[in-house]
Amino acid sequence: MSAGRRRVAPMVLVLAVVMAATCVAQAFGRFTYGIVLPAVRDDLLGSNRTAGLVGTLNVGAYLAGTLAVAAISTRLRPVALVRLGLCLSTSGLLLASQAERAPALAAGLVVTGLGGAAIWIPSPRLAAAVLPPHRRGFAAGLVGTGMGAGLVLAGWLADVLRTDAGGVAWRDVYRVEGAVGVVVLVATLLVLRDEERVAPVPGPGAGFGGFAALRRIDGWLALALAYASFGFMYLLVFAFLVARLEDDAGFSPAEASALFSAVGVAAACGGLLLGPLSDRVGRPKVLVASFCAFGLSTLAFLTGDQPWVALAAVGAGISFSGVPTVIAAYVVDATDASTYGPVFSGATLAFGVAQMAAPQVGGLLADWRGSFTSVFLLSAAVAAVGAVLSSRLPVAREAEAPVADPIL
């Protein structure tokens, strides 16, 4: 085998493992709950308000994990964080699969929330480290593809694993996902086995949650608020999309799961479409378009009719993976190896705060109004705010003297 071929194989393996880890952390550990929410609510929780509270605990744990990553990201290499996150995410999935009471399910989702932050924050940098600088958007897009593929698998599992009464056997869904998590963890240990030989890179003071580091990049406030807008708008839709389709639009559980799977298919493509596009036309322009597309898709979901709902699934999925992909690429552009972790943690902290509020706000609105219409209208309004904020972002200047991130 030639030297060139020996270099390609590790790169492909690293990218595959990073994508798989993101699938476990985000699609399984964080978004499966939205897919199985009607079944969990009817079987275990009893109301949309309680379901929203459990969802809030998951994103609250994600927020806490973001704070922890901000504190330790300059002392641990990215792969060490990913391994830690996989241990947490997989443990949380297996705990949720055995839950017979609401507190046990909540505990499992808290653990997956912590794991999600530990995996998501370092993943774009890991992917970017094995590709040329001008392919950073593409690298971040691959991370989004892993998340989208996981959504497809989660939706498919919810459709296949059904009870005799026709509902979703949600514990079995979590069992399968937990088993996948174990396989991905083993793959990470094998493929990235030499990573610990690289010493951590110390960085400047990050401040609480990484905000001190975040404030050192141009456009930091617009970036943080745009990411927060995304966190609030998408979770209002994704946490209650299946319930909206079943309860308000009369979709069967199978039809609703299929539509969520369509979102996942689109999300698997969104990062790969919008990441490279942002390499060519600029991150701010792509972000504006993505926020607008998500808002229009949210309104199309409210029609409850085909083909608008199917088109909405495609638009929402592409935007869902595209926005965080482009934001991550923007941060990679503006940082080096010593500052990336704290800066992206700071931006993700704003994102996490918004996520923590979204499920509870959505659950309260749904119970108060008796439908999910007001929830989706609020999401569309926040998407418009995100578009305005994105339009104010300067073109990120590449950090001076970037430090390489050896992976293997």
Walkthrough of the structure:
The two termini are 18 Å apart. The longest helix is centred in the N-terminal third of the chain and has 43 residues, at 3-45. The protein is an all-alpha fold. It is built from 15 helices and no strands. 60% of the residues are buried. The chain has a single domain (3-391), classed as MFS general substrate transporter like domains (Growth Hormone, Chain: A), CATH 1.20.1250. α1 packs across α6. The protein has helices spanning 3-45, 48-72, 78-97, 102-120, 123-129, 136-160, 170-191, 211-214, 220-238, 241-248, 253-281, 283-301, 308-334, 340-369, 373-391.
CATH architecture: Up-down Bundle
| Helix-strand category | mainly alpha
| Rg, alpha carbons | 20 Å
Quick one: overall form?
globular
Question: What is the count of structural domains?
Answer: 1
Q: How many DSSP H or I helices?
A: 15
- Helix share, percent: over 70%
Q: What is the averaged pLDDT score?
A: 80
- Strand-residue proportion: under 5%
Topology:
Layout: H1 3-45, H2 48-72, H3 78-97, H4 102-120, H5 123-129, H6 136-160, H7 170-191, H8 211-214, H9 220-238, H10 241-248, H11 253-281, H12 283-301, H13 308-334, H14 340-369, H15 373-391
Helix pairs in contact: 1-2, 1-3, 1-4, 1-6, 1-7, 1-10, 2-4, 2-14, 3-4, 3-7, 5-6, 6-11, 6-13, 9-12, 9-13, 9-14, 9-15, 10-11, 11-12, 11-13, 12-13, 12-15
Structure at a glance:
The chain has 408 residues and is mainly alpha-helical. It has 15 helices and no strands.
